[in-house]
Amino acid sequence: MGNEELPAQPVDVNTQPGYSDSESNISQMVAVDETDDETTIESAEPEAQSESEEWPTEYEGELYIDMYQTKDNVVVKSTIAGVAAEDLDITIANDMLTIRGERKRVEKIDQGDYFFQECYWGGFSRSVILPVDIDSENIEAELKDGILTIILPKAAKAKTKKIKIKA
User: Fold this and answer.
1) How far apart, in whole angstroms, are the C-alpha atoms of residue 63 and residue 43?
2) Phi first, then psi: what are they for 77, rounded to 5°?
3) Where do the DSSP E strands lie in 5-139?
4) Which of 2, 46, 69, 143 has the greatest count of CB atoms below 10 A from its CB?
């Protein structure tokens, strides 16, 4: 690389391989600035959480998915452990698939009693634009063993058809 200036990039050290913070369990953001052949590291530790503080109610978690295609279908899979089928909402609008749900906390635990609090409880969603036209009348969804599987049949015009050439 030349002498191009690069903006500082935040790095969540909790997601880096090999990182473990078992003693303090504090999230830490590090900004690395590599301009002018110098490296500057800035650390920002969040303020200590109060014992009654919980996940903000306006925050909505993101759902991670796998999406792939077969000859006849687009398949979407996601791990949704701890969510009941009645707490999921799957919609198709035009060419967009939206999955919304809520992982409900079934027991009340005082913040001071936690050793670790890493699981997300609350609402989550994911919207993706579908890469091909689908037959929205024949969509199937199944929740089994914590895995949500949505099968979206491709529309007839989206299916690939091999044309035989007459000689």
Assistant:
1) 28
2) -130, 145
3) 9-12, 29-33, 40-44, 61-62, 66-69, 73-79, 88-93, 96-103, 122-129
4) 143
Task: Give 72's DSSP letter.
Answer: S
pLDDT tier for residue 7 given thresholds of 50, 70 and 90: low
Residues 21 and 79 in one domain: no
Mean of the pLDDT values across residues 111-119?
89
Q: Is residue 154 part of a domain?
A: yes
Q: What is the CATH number of the domain that holds 78?
A: 2.60.40.790
Q: What is the pLDDT of residues 48-67, one digit of tens each?
A: 444 445 555 567 888 999 99
pTM tops 0.70, yes or no: no
What is the reported pLDDT for 58? 63
- Residue 102 in any domain: the answer is yes
Rounded CA separation 149/4 (Å) = 45
Number of domains in the chain: 2
